[in-house]
Design a protein that fits this description.
Strands 1-2-5-4-3-6-12-8-13-11 form a 10-stranded mixed beta sheet. Strands 7-14-9-10 form a 4-stranded mixed beta sheet. It is of the alpha/beta class and about 425 residues long. The chain contains 13 helices and 14 strands. Helix content is about 40%, strand content about 15%. A hairpin with a 5-residue loop joins strand 1 and strand 2. Its cofactor is Mn(2+). It comes from Pelusios castaneus (West African mud turtle). Pathway: Protein modification; protein glycosylation.
């Protein structure tokens, strides 16, 4: 039989343990509340303590979206090499429930400033995949995306932004030491001006010795946000003709769904000077006549765009409505830009850096039975003439590596489409 003193000791011990557990719960509750206040303080301090509902500022819901995107830790791609944070700014606003045409693009920080003109020209939903190759770039990318969402209404309303980084890197919410960085940003133009300065003098794909630009992964990430809609996939330093989205939606409303699958080719051009970018075909034809416009890749690889049949397209008079001008058969090494339903085969994500990344997907479309219909009035314009001197030093070596991969890829397609009579 236990003594009264020993029973009292155990009772006291149980009360002490219960009190300790209660205090621990209280501490965790206070800590959680403190963390929440710290997050709210970060929001206000990063932007000068202004009220979140002030004009041009993101709502609490949008801020929470960024927190959720980051708190998820992202998800790894199929290879396990990259981490993907989707919808950093939240899903964009979309009018109506019918089909839409989403402009999908990809970039690194050095070209993110191009998004301003792209959104202004498109005036519709845009999906952009942003690649950050290291911890410093991941932090800066998160900062700049937050600034774009905070200060740029059109970006917040129209753009879905996705951050891609190496699997070992983690994105985090901006810290208070970044306050000085944000204090200088008063308007949307300030954010894009800062991005333009950061990208000045940098070359595409020149990311450092240990970083490869995963362009096809980025394309799939950007296109994946389009859902069941149509997608126009293009490079971020290109602009579409004005009114393309509305004209295309009017066109597909008149087309039937029967027949073989197909894509709609949008002829691509390069412009010498970017001060005057054409919006309509009549204006593009004028610039072509004086040598300011030329077919895309005319100097670097004319065969890569030859099946578009530029002479035929240029001789078609500008029309008042968008229509299919003619249909052409794919042939190697054509790599057209096109509008497609989102059910097309994905890009092969093994292709990185320069060479064979877009042609591999066009080749698969050909074997899968897709037709290529060229649109009469629509076009794309790349800012600046493409010349050999603008490329990074490793371009040729990367091209050779991807050429070997492309040969393997074509053999794999024969097994994937054994009944196809077509070949790449």
């Amino acid at each position: 039989m236990q003594s009264p003193a020993r029973c009292s000791f155990f009772k006291a011990l149980l009360w002490a343990l219960a009190l300790a557990a209660l205090l621990q719960l209280l501490y965790l509750s206070l800590l959680s509340g403190l963390h929440g206040r710290q997050q709210r303080s970060r929001y206000s301090q990063l932007f000068g303590g202004r009220r979140p509902e002030a004009p041009g500022r993101p709502s609490e819901q949008q801020k929470e979206q960024l927190k959720r995107a980051l708190a998820s830790g992202g998800r790894l791609d199929a290879s396990g090499q990259y981490r993907i944070y989707r919808d950093m700014l939240g899903p964009p606003e979309r009018a109506g429930r019918g089909p839409d045409l989403v402009l999908a693009t990809h970039t690194s920080l050095s070209n993110l400033h191009q998004l301003q003109e792209l959104v202004g020209r498109w005036q519709g939903p845009v999906s952009v995949a942003l690649f950050a190759p290291g911890p410093a770039e991941v932090r800066l990318a998160t900062l700049m995306l937050y600034a774009l969402g905070a200060l740029c209404g059109p970006v917040r309303q129209l753009v879905s932004a996705h951050l891609v980084c190496h699997s070992g890197d983690l994105a985090a919410f901006p810290e208070l030491e970044d306050r000085a960085e944000f204090a200088r940003l008063k308007a949307c133009g300030d954010v894009f001006a800062k991005l333009a300065r950061a990208g000045a003098g940098r070359r595409n794909y020149a990311l450092g010795a240990n970083a490869s630009y995963p362009n096809n992964l980025l394309r799939n990430v950007a296109r994946g946000a389009a859902g069941g809609h149509y997608t126009l996939m293009l490079d971020v330093d290109m602009l579409p003709s004005e009114g393309l989205r509305e004209a295309f939606l009017a066109l597909v409303a008149t087309l039937g769904t029967e027949g073989p699958p197909g894509v709609f080719v949008v002829p691509a051009f390069e412009i010498r000077h970017t001060r005057r970018l054409p919006g309509a075909k009549a204006e593009l034809l004028q610039l072509y006549q004086v040598g300011e416009i030329r077919p895309f890749y005319e100097e670097l690889c004319p065969r890569c765009q030859a099946p578009t049949n530029y002479s035929r397209w240029l001789n078609l008079p500008p029309g008042t409505t968008l229509n299919i001008a003619y249909t052409v058969e794919w042939r190697d090494p054509w790599e057209p830009f096109y509008i497609s339903a989102n059910s097309v085969p994905p890009y092969d994500e093994r292709f990185k850096q320069y060479g064979f990344n877009r042609i591999s997907q066009a080749c698969e479309l050909h074997l899968a039975g897709y037709s290529f219909s060229v649109l009469n009035n629509a076009f794309l314009v790349h800012k600046g003439f493409k010349v050999p001197s603008e490329f990074h030093a490793q371009k040729d070596a990367e091209n050779q590596r991807n050429k070997v991969l492309f040969r393997q890829f074509k053999q794999e397609l024969k097994l994937k489409y054994p009944g196809s009579l077509r070949r790449c």
